[in-house]
Design a protein that fits this description.
Helices cover 36% and strands 15% of the residues. It is built from 13 helices and 15 strands. Helix 3 packs antiparallel against helix 6.
Length: 357
């Protein structure tokens, strides 16, 4: 069903067509490219361990490289929906004008809207770099009472000036709520939210903080004002990450139970499992080693679930048809100039020469 001619092959073999989504099940989805497939596998593994009744779908924002074998049923996935199956208008333009992070975020609203429209009465989104450590049954309960559930980056004020700068001012820049998680019920209000979020992301899902945008997160600052039935989940055990550790210390007791600020750790958001993330953790770990044990565990699971046969830095939409990498400046220029879009309806085949002065 792919309609994008980016010089990459597509495969219908692994593209599962939409089918009726059983109401009795809770459906969860994530969005990713093949570069994050190892993370998707860890998410699927940990979600199934602690919440076996949840069905995980992958919204795939990529195409297979030649010779690459993808077997979603072996990765614990209920199904795979490709970006070309979401009914996104002007798909080729949308793909070209967004970088990989922006595009993997843009599809979240469309995927949510489709899942609710096709029968799911409860849908949860989780970022692919999340690992689940305990039952999420409380989320299921909340979705019987509320239409939308959000988790804030911070659930209590910081005290140190450095933490206020990093965390509270960071939330003012990038959004109050961590959209690595979102739960929505298939109610009239939940579906109204999904359509609104879908439309805003289709038009304005860019990492452009000076213009007041940070992909999907800044939009959800408006949700409690725009919609009824919104619940802000302030339990510190949900959506723990390097940037909120200052008020959510990780502990592991003699029984192996993991807690954040004294509450059971439900899921941890392993964004930037590199030296950048390590620096934030080092700054706010309070000298405790438990959070580093989590990081080491996560890296080991990524190694177990490593993706083989994928070219380095692969993303099907990251290059022109001739293999030349697409600079961010070209994406921005094509987004801003109607004359370029009119003259080059398929920018992937136009090549970099089309963007020379």
């Amino acid at each position: 069903m792919a309609i994008v001619n980016s010089g990459r092959p597509t495969s219908a073999r692994t593209s599962l067509r939409w089918r009726h989504l059983a109401v009795a099940e809770l459906h969860c989805f994530t969005s990713a490219s093949f570069a994050y497939l190892d993370r998707v596998r860890v998410l699927a593994e940990t979600l199934a361990k602690h919440n076996p009744n949840w069905k995980l779908w992958l919204c795939l924002v990529d195409q297979e490289p030649p010779g690459f074998a993808f077997h979603p049923e072996q990765d614990g996935l209920a199904g795979v929906v490709r970006i070309s199956e979401l009914g996104i208008p002007n798909l080729r333009t949308q793909i070209f004008t967004h970088d990989i992070v922006e595009l993997c975020t843009l599809v979240k609203g469309a995927m949510l809207d489709q899942m609710l429209a096709r029968g799911a009465d409860r849908v949860v989104y989780l970022d692919p770099d999340i690992a689940v450590f305990d039952t999420l049954a409380h989320i299921e309960c909340l979705l019987t009472q509320y239409d939308v559930v959000l988790t804030p980056h911070q659930v209590e004020p910081d005290e140190l000036p450095s933490a206020i700068r990093d965390n509270e001012i960071g939330s003012l820049k990038w959004g109050v709520y961590n959209l690595g998680f979102l739960a929505v019920a298939g109610t009239l209000e939940g579906r109204r939210f999904a359509r609104w979020w879908r439309d805003r992301l289709l038009d304005h899902c860019y990492d452009d903080v000076p213009s007041g945008l940070f992909t999907d997160q800044r939009w959800c600052d408006l949700v409690p004002a725009f919609f009824d039935g919104v619940h802000v989940l302030r339990d510190p055990g949900y959506n723990v990450a390097s940037w909120n550790l200052s008020r959510r210390p990780i502990t592991i007791d003699e029984n192996g139970d993991i807690k954040a600020a004294g509450r059971p750790l439900r899921f941890f958001h392993f964004t930037k499992v590199n030296w950048v993330g390590e620096a934030m953790i080092e700054r706010y770990s309070g000298g405790r080693v438990e959070v580093f044990e989590l990081m080491h565990w996560y890296r080991r699971r990524l190694m177990v679930h490593a993706t083989h046969g994928l070219p380095k830095s692969w993303w099907a939409y990251g290059t022109y048809a001739d293999g030349t990498p697409i600079p961010h400046a070209h994406r921005r220029l094509y987004r801003d100039r109607a004359d370029l879009r009119e003259h080059y309806p398929n920018p992937f085949t136009a090549g970099p020469a089309a963007f020379l002065p």
